[in-house]
Batch of 3 targets.
Target 1
Amino acid sequence: MALVVALSACAGPPPREYVLRTTATVDPSATLGAASPVVQVERVVLPDYLDTRDIVTRRDREVVTSETGRWAERLSLGATRLLAASLAAHLNGVAVTSTQPIDPPVMRVAVDVLRFDVVHDGPVVLTARWTITDGTGQKSLATAQATLQESVAGTRDDAVVAAMSLALEKLANRISAGIEPNLARRN
């Protein structure tokens, strides 16, 4: 009995759970109608070691898991949700969804994250390749790749999460710049 009490006293508090969060907001005056174009964001593809609920940092080739924080959802789900929300804020009059829409979308966005690391005592580095296709997914409209960095204000989990969120928002800005001219061509 004494051993159980001693071991429970050594255990720290449970890890905090975090979600990626966008600072972009949808214009409240923007209205979507039945004729609004729909853009579908497919689930973001991440390397397996990142697509977990663990918050990880990297030291050279070593991946270190946070003992004090974890994702409230798989990172691929959170990244997809944030990209869809951020794109919706950038693309006025466009319905952006990360689920299968009822009517076929006019475009699909596929994102393949090649690197999304928090370098120990350094910045977040996000390298992603994305493809914008027509609604059927058969015709490529644009393909691009970018490497983005975002400073981390400290070493705590909340600072890491904030920097990762900002890096994904920067990615959404780049993607929306590829969607807008293709939407204009449709009109």
Note: The radius of gyration is 19 Å.
Target 2
Amino acid sequence: MIKIDDKISIPESKISFQGIRAQGSGGQNVNKVSSAVHLRFDIHESGLPGRVKDKLLSLNDQRISKNGILVIKAQNFRSREKNKEDALNRLQKILQSVLFSKKKRKKTKPKKSVVAKRLDKKIKHGRIKESRKKVEY
């Protein structure tokens, strides 16, 4: 079971893994061993609450196909186990980001006293600069 939060968890049977060869240079090990991992997660068949599914499907993410399958490719590590763990962590982060939305910022205005103080300073600074000018007779 992969725990997303206190109430929501995903059984590992809903997630499929496929070993693939990693991209990039690296010589013999990269060419022989399938250490990279594709994690496939079917959003429609996941058993997640409806609102979470809707938020996931509405994400503008290229990793989510039109069929509602989320594909995460992990190839940062040399071993398949670490890449599998990395892919699961990334899936967990994506699901947590959908669950917990940020609070909207309340618009605030500066206090009248602060505005008055700033304008007062501005006027004083302007007078100081004015006094530096040459005096014309």
Note: The chain is about 40% helix and 15% strand.
Target 3
Amino acid sequence: MDALSLIYNTRGKIYSNQEKWQDAEVAFGKCVAITKTVDDKSLFYMKRLVNLAEVQEKRNRLQACLRTANQAHALSESTIKTVPHVFIIKECLQCMCRVYRKLDKQDKLIETLKEMELECIRLRNVYDELENQTKQKLILN
């Protein structure tokens, strides 16, 4: 099953690079549906949702984009627990900010920008900790 979702994910990326947004949205949609049956709490599922949201944004399907991005954002906590150093949450929030700006929803834009700032601080702390651990290993060896 996951091999099939990877095929659709790759197709979606190819279509996106070619700016064939409708085909990309269909491919990413199929990828998301398949991935959800395999594991709906994984980093891969979140990444695929963000891919779909970004294509929906390109097609100016802004409400669909927000629904998809919010679905992805709901996975933030589980993603942080499993892989705290990834940037997918920031990418999701950036997508949401662009859409809120297009929709002129200033209150939601400001709220999401604040959340993105907190995510950037969290990431900086994660990377500072990883750097400290690396330095400690070098000192001990």
Note: The helical segments are 2-17, 21-38, 43-58, 62-73, 76-82, 88-102, 106-140.
